[in-house]
Design goal:
Layout lengths: L2 H16 L11 E8 L15 E5 L2 E5 L2 E2 L12 E2 L2 E8 L3 E9 L8 E4 L4 E4 L2 E2 L2 E2 L3 E7 L2 E6 L11 E5 L2 E5 L10 E6 L8 E5 L8 E4 L4 E5 L2 E4 L2 E5 L3 E5 L4 E5 L10 E5 L2 E5 L5 H15 L3 H16 L8 E5 L4 E5 L13 E3 L2 E5 L2 E3 L2 E2 L2 E7 L1
Antiparallel strand pairs: 1-32, 2-3, 3-6, 4-5, 6-7, 8-9, 9-12, 10-11, 12-13, 14-15, 15-16, 16-17, 18-19, 19-22, 20-21, 22-23, 24-25, 25-26, 26-27, 28-29, 29-32, 30-31
Protein name: Cyclically-permuted mutarotase family protein
Keywords: Kelch repeat, Repeat
Organism: Sphingobacterium thermophilum
Length: about 375
């Protein structure tokens, strides 16, 4: 046996026995399909949910809370309703996703950040009836029942934040409330009793509706998002930040191919996979018309502007169906195959083995989808 062969075999032995080698590889294709929907309510199709509490526990998909417009669209005077149902689905490799039970949820929580692993997941902040909260909860399964426990609240109320779980630490990034958009990154030691949240880094820009994923070891990635502005259209970001957690340093890496907010994403074998999102094209048109209506003193002109705005919302084209993959090693973005059908935002992407799960979400202004979307990574 040649010396080089001995070295190669020795290296392989270390990889197998110590589990210290990771094989980064970029996916070529994601096979998307709608496997099921949220169950009917009173004999009618479920409207779907934006901002649900969601996670995976012991091969079960949990979906709870969320918000929708059951009576009418918001531009027609419809009121947003915060829901109080909890759904448990069984995940099976070859048999799809099957509803196990529908229960009453103890809360009307929506637009929280979610993060977890296969044994436990967490919700951070969110809102109830339009008001941001600082509440943090841990969810687990005991005898097929979802158990919720309160943890140390966030330093201040935040909705539309993003979160990640890495080792023993929970991280919450950005978010917003009535007063401001946050640029803070907070951390909590989940294994330390009575631990408090600590600020570990500050982003260059305040951001809500971003996608945050962790590499499972020592880095966070903050992708896109947006920032509301006073008397100006909302800023949408194409910025991607890499956060070096041990050194608490933030650096900007390759920008998104387009500015996006409210999409979903995962970390997969050295890649950031970003699914869908709002590219601001329709969002900014609506904002500009709202500001124009506020600035005119003429009732008839204002009514015409509002009707034009309403018409744009009624005919919302939906959100981008593009799926992007960023190779951290190669430092470049590539397009994967588009989503088929309508693209949900304001929800979460969950990784189950080699499958991406996207439960419910918003597909157009004011319109939700009851679909549970699965994408097998190939």
């Amino acid at each position: 046996m040649m010396f080089s062969e001995k070295v190669s075999l020795l290296g392989l032995w270390f990889c197998i026995t110590l589990g210290s080698c990771t094989m980064d590889s970029s996916p070529n294709y994601i096979d998307w399909k709608i496997v099921t929907t949220l169950p009917q309510e009173a004999g009618t199709l479920h409207l779907g949910l934006a901002g649900p509490v969601a996670g995976i526990l012991d091969d079960k998909l949990i979906i709870a809370g969320g918000a929708n417009f059951p009576e009418a669209m918001p531009w027609e005077g419809g009121e947003k309703r915060y829901q109080k149902k909890l759904y448990i689905y069984q995940l099976r490799d070859k048999e799809g996703v099957h509803l196990l039970s529908t229960e009453e949820f103890t809360d009307s929580l929506a637009y929280c950040a979610n993060a977890g692993d296969s044994k436990v997941f967490y919700s951070f902040g969110g809102e109830r009836n339009g008001k941001a909260t600082a509440d943090v909860f841990r969810y687990s399964l005991q005898r097929d029942k979802v158990i919720r426990e309160a943890l140390q609240p966030l330093p201040f109320p935040l909705t539309n934040a993003a979160a990640a779980l890495i080792g023993k630490h929970l991280y919450v990034v950005g978010g917003e409330n009535e007063q401001e958009v946050s640029n803070k990154i907070f951390r909590l030691n989940r294994e330390k009793k009575n631990a408090s949240w600590e600020e570990i880094a500050v982003l260059p820009n305040p951001v809500s509706h971003s996608i945050v994923v962790g590499d499972g070891y020592q880095r966070l990635y903050v992708v896109g998002g947006r920032r509301k502005n006073s008397m100006a259209v909302t800023t949408f970001y194409d910025i991607v930040y890499e956060v070096d957690l041990p050194n608490r340093k933030v650096k900007q890496i390759a920008s998104l191919p387009q500015a996006l907010a409210a999409g979903t994403g995962i970390y997969y074998k050295g890649n950031l996979i970003i699914v869908g999102g709002d590219n601001a094209q329709t969002y900014h048109k609506v904002e500009e018309l709202i500001m124009a209506a506020q600035q005119t003193d003429h009732r008839e002109e204002r009514e015409k502007i509002i009707e034009k705005k309403n018409d744009i919302q009624r005919n919302h084209p939906g959100f981008t169906r593009r799926v992007w993959c960023y190779s951290i090693k190669e430092k470049k973005w590539d397009a994967l195959n588009d989503l088929e059908g309508e693209s949900p935002v304001t929800t979460i992407a969950l990784l189950y083995k080699n499958t991406v799960i996207i439960p419910s979400g918003e597909i157009r202004a004011g319109v939700r989808t009851p679909q549970i979307l699965l994408g097998e990574i190939r």
